[in-house]
Every structure is written in C-alpha cells, then in structure tokens.
Amino acid sequence: MSTHSHAHDDHHGHDHADGASHGTFNSYLIGFILSVILTAIPFWLVMHGVLDSKVATAAWIMGLGVVQIVVHMVCFLHMNTKSEGGWNMLALIFTLVIVAIAIAGSLWVMYHLNTNMMPQMDHEMIRSFG
What we know:
It contains 5 helices and no strands.
C-alpha cells in the first residue's frame, strides 16, 4: 500500500487525535428529529395563526431558523469546541454573525422596498380616482 493510501485511510477512523468524530447513528437521528421539529413549529405558527402579531411570528421563525442552523452544525457537521483546536467554534460564531447580517439586511431591504415602491396617495389623488 502506498503512503498516500495510508494517509487517506487514517481519516476514516471513528476518533481522531483532536477529539472530532464522524458521528454516530444517534447523533444523526437526534439531528434529524430536531430538524423536523424546528421545521414543523414555524409551519404550525403560520398555518394556525398562533401569534396575533406578524412581527412576533417572523421573529419566532427567524429564531428557530438560527437554532436549526446550530443543530445542523453540531449534529451533522460535528462542530464542537474540541475539534480542530477550537477553530470550529470560531467558524460557528462567524456563521451566526453572517446569518444575523443576512437576516437584518434582508428585512431592511424589504421594508424600504415596500415603503419606497408603494405610491403615497393623498386625498386629492384618491378623489380623482373615484
């Protein structure tokens, strides 16, 4: 066997020297169940009109979306504080910052598009249509 083949085979063990693992059936199952729950809750909130406020509903949906991202990173990507010398935790923090920027920017753009694209009708304009 060549040295390349040995180096390649070393990455397929269950435990690495830095504490990271490829995951177990239980971690994948827990991740899947949590993902289904975190998808079903926002669907339920919207379809049944559980919350009176649209802003509160949107906030809950965004919050659960962020939680789902963390679940995916932990259960499926196996990111924790031990693996890769802590760099995975830095990647998690970076991801959360990017998601927050993307959500805030999207809301800002949608708000301003709605405000600036809708015609501002005064009483004179309304009377001229009627």
